[in-house]
Amino acid sequence: MARRVDIKTPSLYIAIMIKTQIQLPDRLYREAKRVAEEREISLAEVLRRGVEYITRVYPPLNATEGHAWKLPKAVHANVRPGVTLEALRDLAAGDEEPPVAATPGKSRQSGKA
Q: What count of other Cβ atoms lies within 10 Å of the Cβ of residue 101?
């Protein structure tokens, strides 16, 4: 695992860094270069700042929480009648429209009986 060691003294700052390669989509690369040019900093500095930011936003997971995200238990779920737990799981797993349960006595198109 890569480590960064910082040595600070009043007149000296030494950072030992790890050299790595990454692949960026063209659009993201162009945006990062634009930021670097506008701020007059290197692309490497833009990327370092981005990684520093994202590691603060996503702190390490606790060992008790596990590593996989789990659906939280619903306390009070206001779910439409006719929508099953299986349908909600399928919806969460996919990228589809939620099922619309027909209301008894109403037409789906007009909303009138």
A: 13
